[in-house]
Design a protein that fits this description.
Blueprint (H helix, E strand, L loop, with lengths): L1 H9 L11 E5 L5 E6 L8 H9 L7 E4 L13 H8 L3 E4 L11 H8 L3 E4 L3 H7 L1 H9 L3 E9 L3 E3 L11 H13 L2 E5 H7 L15 E5 L20 E6 L3 H7 L5 E5 L1 E2 L2 E2 L1 H10 L4 E4 L3 H9 L5 E7 L9 E2 L13 E11 L2 E10 L3
Parallel strand pairs: 3-4, 4-5, 6-14, 6-15, 8-9, 8-14, 9-10, 10-11
Antiparallel strand pairs: 1-2, 1-3, 7-16, 12-13, 15-18, 17-18
Helix pairs in contact: 3-4
The structure holds NADP nicotinamide-adenine-dinucleotide phosphate.
NADP nicotinamide-adenine-dinucleotide phosphate binds next to strand 6, strand 7, strand 8, helix 8 and strand 13.
């Protein structure tokens, strides 16, 4: 099963909206006779790749796979049927597929055909391998990762919004890798106005086009901004107030897709924004600031993970942008804590990755 997981993990940022899946076929003598993984939507599923390699040797063998085999016709035929036809005796899977089109049906099909099924081996690891996929199906919205490059005193920019550069080149290269691992990148209008970012993935040897989104309730962005220029195949989405949509569509025609959102409190409804992204097959979104946008996602309870790059630098708070530019919680225990943290030194900077859990008020 560890091998199946390792194979699944090779596909980094290429399978979405599909999950990452690896499969290893082991015969009665304990020899691996087939192994494969899913590379991208439309390409063979892991089970099909592994069974193709095993051929006749799959008869009487055990298939190890990190996710329940599918039972529905998508772009490829159901993997459960494929396994049944191959003559495997036993299927060991790490977890049930949370996709409502599967959700136990794959296992049922295998059991109905007389195949022994075991579920739960390395389940926690399997959920981590497909965190966004699981969350998207369970919560009906994409996984949200907040990302920021901050000073030691928690500032995103110096006076008058100058933020280039707080972190060093290694941290900035890693940030592009984070973009690649997510299906979409999102910022607030303030960041577009201050930084004029292009929000593309720029990594040597990697061609990845991610959807780019901006929350701009007043739609006061310059159509000549970098975001709207260049050859990137990645579309730009502008989320705005319903009242701005008509004029916005004229102003940004051919440059961006303008989408209206209902109000929620004194802002735009972020839950609806995320549902719209999911309808565009976005299973994960990297929210890259600024401070006001980070605060909005936290306050709405819609932030799942954080990637915080910290530079050994002090900026001072007056006139700059704080990492979370919103109302402070009543006491520290009510704040958002990063758990399951992993820390990576990137030259002089420190990256902390983890889940966000809100404390009790
Ligand atoms: N160091 C870093 O990693 C980093 C990253 C990003 C940005 N920055 C810096 O941060 C600064 C910008 O941050 P900021 O806090 O001023 O701006 P911001 O968060 O980029 O954008 C805030 C604006 O976005 C819109 N917005 C976001 N969420 C909304 C919601 N739920 N409802 C309604 N409107 C929403 C509003 O637009 P309107 O203003 O149109 O109402 C709001 O004023 C810049 O100086 C930039 O350089 C640093």
């Amino acid at each position: 099963m560890e091998q199946a997981h390792a194979l699944a993990a090779i596909a980094e940022g290429t399978t979405s909206p599909n999950p990452r899946v690896g499969c290893v076929i082991v015969n009665a003598a304990g020899e691996v006779v087939g192994a494969g993984f899913h590379r991208a939507p439309g390409s063979p599923h892991a089970e099909a790749a592994a069974l193709a390699q095993a051929g006749e040797r799959a008869r009487g063998a055990t298939a190890y796979v990190n996710l329940e085999p599918c039972a529905h016709h998508g772009r490829t035929p159901p993997c459960a049927d494929h396994l049944i036809e191959s003559g495997v005796r036993r299927v060991v899977a790490s977890m049930v597929d949370p996709n409502p089109r599967v959700d136990g049906r794959g296992f049922q099909r295998l059991r109905d055909a007389g195949i022994e099924v075991e579920v739960g081996l390395l389940e926690e690891e399997a959920r981590r391998l497909n965190e966004a996929f699981c969350l998207a199906h369970e919560k009906g919205r994409p996984l949200v990762t907040l990302k920021a490059g901050a000073s030691l005193d928690g500032m995103l920019s110096a006076q008058a919004g100058v933020s280039q550069w707080i972190t060093g080149p290694l941290a900035r290269a890693f940030a592009h890798r984070l973009r690649m691992r997510h299906d979409a990148v999102l910022v607030g209008a303030g960041t577009v106005r201050a930084d004029d970012p292009s929000l593309t993935v720029r990594l040597p040897g990697v061609e990845a086009h991610r959807l780019r989104a901006v929350i701009a309730p007043r739609l006061d962005l310059d159509p000549r901004a970098k975001l709207f220029q260049g050859e990137s195949a990645a579309p730009v989405l502008l989320y705005t107030r319903e009242s701005e949509v008509e004029t916005g569509r004229e102003r940004f025609e051919g440059l961006a897709t303008v989408i209206g959102l209902p109000a929620a409190g004194d802002g735009l409804d972020l839950r609806r924004l995320l549902e719209d992204l999911l309808s565009r097959q976005v299973m994960s979104v990297l929210v890259e600031g600024g401070g006001a946008t980070v605060a909005r996602f936290l306050e709405a309870g819609l932030a799942d993970r954080m990637a915080l790059f910290q530079a050994p630098l002090l900026i001072g708070s007056d006139g700059g942008t704080p990492l979370v530019d919103g109302q402070a919680v009543s006491r520290p225990a009510a704040g958002w804590r990063m758990t399951d943290t992993r820390r990576i030194a990137l030259g002089p900077d420190l990256l902390t990755l983890g889940r966000l859990v809100q404390g009790e008020e």
